[in-house]
Amino acid sequence: MALRGVIFDMGGTLLDYHPPAPSAGEGWRAMEDLGADALRTFLLERGYPAPPVEEARQSAFAAMERQWRMIAEGKPVNPQLGPILREVLLSWGLPEDAANDGLIDSAVATYVAPAQAVVRPLPGAAETLAALRAQGLRLGLFSNTVWPGAFHLEDLARWGLAEYLDCAFFSADVGAWKPARQVFQMTLDALGLQPQEAAFVGDHPYFDVYGAQQAGLRGVLLQSAEWEAPPSGGLPITPDATLTRLADLLPLVEAWRTS
Fold first, then answer.
1. Domain ranges of the chain
2. According to DSSP H, which parts of 46-180 are helical?
3. Close Cβ partners of 103 (under 8 Å, ≥ 6 residues apart)
4. Closest Cα partner for 60 from 70, 50, 73, 71?
5. Are 96 and 130 in contact (CB under 8 A)?
C-alpha cells in the first residue's frame, strides 16, 4: 500500500534537548543538572530546605535514572515529571503538607525551563517537514517523555515545527509508552491512516523502529549517538530504512509513495 503519512519521534529526531557535551550520557546529565539547580533555587527562595548543589544534582538524577532503568528492564511504567519531582522534593526535606499540586506544578515548570532554553532543532527538521507537507502527506508525532506535553508543544511551535503536524501526542499525557502498539494506533487514528500507509521515524531501535513494525508501520531509524546501550530485550531489529540525516527521508518517502 502506498505511503500517505509519516509519524515522527521528537527528542533526538526533530529536537535536541541536551546541552552540547562530549557524550550522550554527559549531555543527558547536564540537562538534568540544569533542572536540579533551578529546582533547588526555587525551593530556597520560598524558604524551604534544599541540599547542597552536588547532593541535589545527584539525588535528582538518580530519581530520573531509576525510571529509565525500569523501562530498560521492561517494566510497565509511564514516568511523569510531577510525581518524580514530588519524590525528589520530599527527599530534600520538603514538608509533606507543602507538596501540593500547585507547588508541584510550579516545580515542574521550573525544572523544564533551563532545558527549554537550550533546546534546538536537528538539522533539516523544518525543511523536511515542510517538504513532506507540500507533498500532501499527513504528519504526526508521538514522543516518549516525562514532561507534560504542553511544554513540548511550546518548543515545537517556537522552532516552527508545530505548524506542519496534524497531531502530536506525548506519553506522559496519554498514559502509554512506546513500543506499546496502542500509541501507534492512536496516532494513526488521529491521522486517518491504516498502518500500511504510514512510516514512523525515530532515533531509537526498540521504542521507535521495533514498536512501529509491531504495529504494522514501516520503521525508519535516524542514526543517533544518544542511545549508547538502547534496551531491546535481545530482539533482532532491522529497520525498513536507516538515515544519517533527516533530509535523506525525502527520496525514501517519494519511493514509498509511488510503490
1. 5-17+119-257, 24-118
2. 53-72, 81-91, 101-118, 125-134, 149-158, 171-174
3. none
4. 50
5. no
Q: Which among 13, 10, 12 has a CA at the least distance from the CA of 153?
A: 10
Name the strand (E) or helix (H) holding 143: strand 138-143
Q: Mapping DSSP to helix (H, G, I), strand (E, B) and coil, where does residue 43 land? A: helix
- Give yes or no for residue 201 having a pLDDT over 90: yes
Cell of 197: 500507509
pLDDT category of residue 68 using cuts at 50, 70 and 90: confident
Query: Is pLDDT above 70 for 36?
Result: yes
Go through the chain and tell me how many residues it has.
259
Residues 6 or more apart whose Cβ sits within 8 Å of residue 181: 211, 214, 215
Nearest to 211 by CA among 229, 228, 225, 230: 230
Domain covering 5-17+119-257, topology: Rossmann fold (3.40.50)
pTM: 0.93
